[in-house]
Amino acid sequence: MELPKIHSITKKLLVALVGGFLLLFLLFHMTANLFILRHDDGAWYSAFCHFMGTNWVVKIFEVVLLGVVALHILLTLWLVVTNRLARPTRYHQRQRSKTHTTSKLMMWTGILIFAFLVMHFCQFWFVKVGLVKGDYMVEVEKLQTEEVSTIMQYSAQNGMEPADVVAAVENQMAMYADQLAPEQMAEMEANIQSLKDAVPVAEFISKALREDHFSQDRKWIRHISYDERQMLKEKAPKCGVEPDFYYMSRNLFHNGLMVLLYLIAFVALFMHLTHAFPSVFQTLGLNNYTYNGIIEILGKIYTWVITLGFAAVPILVFLGL
Ligand code: HEM
């Protein structure tokens, strides 16, 4: 089998650059996840996710990141395949060299991390892009159009359901219909129609009030189902309903099996990073006798901080802390 020829050093360099980018992403992702541990009803984490989901620079970064993850997998697979093709006949005597063991370890831990990422994406990222159902939230302010506010106000003042408010307005208008000029009538009908369109949103807010689905800071409505999200997308397209990653994460880690699966993935990640960190510096030629010691210490600190930082979230949430 012939693969396109790129010098093996170039491939290694690309793997290292891409790996370096991923090391930075992990540090960022782990730090942000620690917000989940705050007992602030998701105020910080939701604000962070909202920023991540709406800022266009972040959106570009996300595309780059996913490209880089895919590139990292493809490049490493390519390195493995081309190395094997360069040595088609296996040695008769199996050599258990350190490099051989490390690269085997990298391959298996890499496969485990990939399996974890498939599960992880199904639980979170696919919810964001609408491929999987989840729990959602919306900013209250974004729902309060003039029509919705009018209905809510009448509804609260007169103790009526939102649909009844619009029916009452319609009845009143019918009483004056014969006194109105055709253009006034048309305007009135248009106003009533926009009030009718706002009823599902007003009913949704009333239900959220009744069932206390407001966040502590009254900024968000949470526990929105997939069907309600679809309704909001249709009736209030500009409201920007988004996944409730704070609630979803905390909910996920009440499940012991999920905590276990995440912890297994973090052990694989620990082993993968133990080799990956110094390897990035070595391939980029940034190691020498003076810096080797520092890089080794930095690598150990980085790997422990990342692993413990990630592990803290499922463990502490599961323990109810
Ligand atoms: C306690 C552990 C973790 C939690 C609670 C967590 C949570 C999340 C959440 C909520 C998202 C969606 C964020 C968004 O798209 O705005 C996400 C995305 C992502 N996670 Fe994690 N994550 C964890 C660990 C990891 C680990 C260990 C890796 C890598 C090995 C990872 C890789 C990713 C990637 C690549 C994305 C998609 C890119 C992005 O949207 O930021 N996550 N994670």
Describe what you observe in this structure.
The protein has a three-stranded antiparallel β-sheet with strand order 2-1-3. The radius of gyration is 28 Å and the shape is elongated. With 321 residues, it is mainly α. It folds into two domains: 8-88 and 96-135 and 249-318, no CATH class; 139-243, no CATH class. It is built from twelve helices and three strands. Helix 1 (8-33) crosses helix 12 (289-318), helix 6 (146-158) crosses helix 8 (182-210) and helix 11 (256-283) runs antiparallel to helix 12. The protein has helices at 8-33, 43-54, 56-86, 98-128, 140-143, 146-158, 162-176, 182-210, 226-235, 245-252, 256-283, 289-318, and strands at 136-139, 220-224, 242-243.
**Rg to the nearest angstrom?**
28 Å
* Side-by-side strand order of the widest sheet: 2-1-3
Give helix % range.
over 70%
Spell out which ligands are present: protoporphyrin IX containing FE
Overall tally of domains: 2
Shape annotation: elongated
User: Could you list the spans in which at least 5 consecutive residues all have pLDDT below 50?
Assistant: none
Strand content: under 5%
Distance between the termini: 55 Å
The main sheet comes to: 3 strands, antiparallel
What is the mean pLDDT?
A: 87
Number of strands: 3
Provide the succession of SSEs.
HHHHEHHHHEHEHHH
Structural class: mainly alpha
Number of separate helices: 12
Nutshell version of this structure?
The protein has helices at 8-33, 43-54, 56-86, 98-128, 140-143, 146-158, 162-176, 182-210, 226-235, 245-252, 256-283, 289-318; strands at 136-139, 220-224, 242-243. It is mainly alpha-helical and 321 residues long. The chain has 2 domains: 8-88 and 96-135 and 249-318, no CATH class; 139-243, no CATH class.
